[in-house]
Input
Amino acid sequence: MSQEFYPLRLQDNCDVEHLLTPGQKQQPFSVNNPAIEVMTDFSEVVPVTVTEGVSVDDALERMKSQHVRLLFVITLAGKFVGVISSHDIAGHKVIVHMQNHGVTRDEVAVGHIMLHKQHLRSITFDQITHSRIGDIMLTLKNSGDQHLLVVDETEIGIKRIRGIISASDVSRKLRVGFDIMYEAKSFAQIEKIITEGRDLVI
Output
């Protein structure tokens, strides 16, 4: 059975004067917004990965080319084993490994300095869907973590990394500095600066 199509009614644009930009589409971020709004969802965005044996400098170049500051580390078989950040590579970890093992920088691989998955904390996707950004901020503040993995489970019980939340993403989207996020005595203070768009003096 064939489906019928119909022409749409056209209109003029004499009274249209404004162009929408991406930043205008969303309502201003608030601590009361759904937490899922600050999660990088791997059902929509492909996670950027690197294998354990890649040199740290090659990993850093991959970060730059992909415009990310964190890579998910996988084995050659594609199994998730940890994460590595630009801070890990630029910080003291590489130098310590070089000194302890008597190797050059070229010999330092991602697997030598990555943060193993057993040292990463996670929350479930179900928790995210029932939480607000303020809940995430409080979680990050209490744990001291810079990243939280979000884990879901398939119908047959296979656990997988569904996404990630980073403190820097929360800070950027709320337009609130790390110092304010972690030092503010209440969400009322944070909400005030978000609303007024100015720096808060603690």
